[in-house]
Amino acid sequence: GVTEVLAHRSDSLRDKFIEIPCSEDYDSHKRFEGCTPRRCGRGVTDAVITREEAERIRRIAERGLSLGGSDGGASILDLHSGALSLGKHFVNLYRYFGNKIQDIFTEEDFALYRDVRQRIQQRIAQVFGISSSSMYLTKPTFFSRMNSTEAKTTHDEYWHPHVDKVTYGSFDYTSLLYLSDYTEDFGGGRFVFMDADSNKTIEPRAGRVSFFTSGSENLHRVEKVLWGTRFAITISFTCDPEHGIGDPSWA
Fold first, then answer.
1. For the chain, what is the radius of gyration of the CA atoms?
2. pLDDT tens, position by position, 123-174
3. Which pTM does this prediction carry?
4. 21: DSSP letter
């Protein structure tokens, strides 16, 4: 179908927001007044996280993923649960490496991660007209590293179209913070919203945040990475406090 680029890598967008009708996905879950989406859509901003902060965050991902990594093209690091791709499986980073973790991540790393998460949360709340305090971080929230290596397991097949609310249930708002640059660090790997009439793509750029309501109104996929390495972090929010998780910390 026709492809429209919502955000080119060369753009520097303060805020771009496109409202779209909400799907019925939210009706099959408990509704939370003042948080569950009544206004749906998708946004992109380059004005919340700086490139320098994105580079610092990427270094956290690189250090963590250097401890493992998938045999295939997609590796995951979840600082909350400790899940880390290792070969064809996952290990718990905190159990597997124990006290050595303190040589990998610093207090400053976790503080930056928390600060970035809070700023993204505030921007989403502002754009959708809800209270930031009514949203809760939810799982899975994770770093991804993608390259052109052939898939070895279904976990490596990141390119299938999906709906976050259907896949994860708890998701109400999804965000992605890109940590590398399309056409400079990698080829392919664009983010694609799959609408009935056309595809709408976002070209990753370090520090760019894309965010959207998590229902079927935002069916999406990621193109296969053709060369280089693509880093991003998925940060997801729920309106249901029972599905909330805390920020990663030493405690």
1. 17
2. 999 999 999 999 999 999 999 999 999 999 998 999 999 999 999 999 999 9
3. 0.96
4. -
Task: Determine contact, residues 120/100, Cβ cutoff 8 Å.
Answer: no
**Domains defined for the chain, CATH in brackets:** 3-243 (2.60.120.620)
Two tokens, residue 27: 């009706």
For this structure, is 14 an active site residue? Answer: no
pLDDT digit string, tens, across residues 186-205: 999 999 999 998 999 999 99
- Residue 118 phi/psi, 5-degree rounding, is -65, -40
Pairing of strands 198-202, 2-7: parallel
Beta strand 40-45 with 16-20 is antiparallel
Predicted pLDDT of residue 139:
96
Q: For the stretch 92-127, what's the b/e string if a residue is b when 16 or more beta carbons lie within 10 angstroms of its beta carbon?
A: ebeeebeeebeeebeeebbeebeebbeebbebbbeb
CB proximity list for 51: less than 8 A, separation 6 or greater: 206, 207
CA angle, 178 then 182 then 188, to 5°: 110
Helix (H) or strand (E) holding 52: helix 51-65
**Tokens, residue 86:** 């290792």
Which tokens is 242 given? 């029972």
Residues present in the chain in total: 251
Cα 127 to Cα 39, 176, 180, distances in angstroms: 10, 16, 25
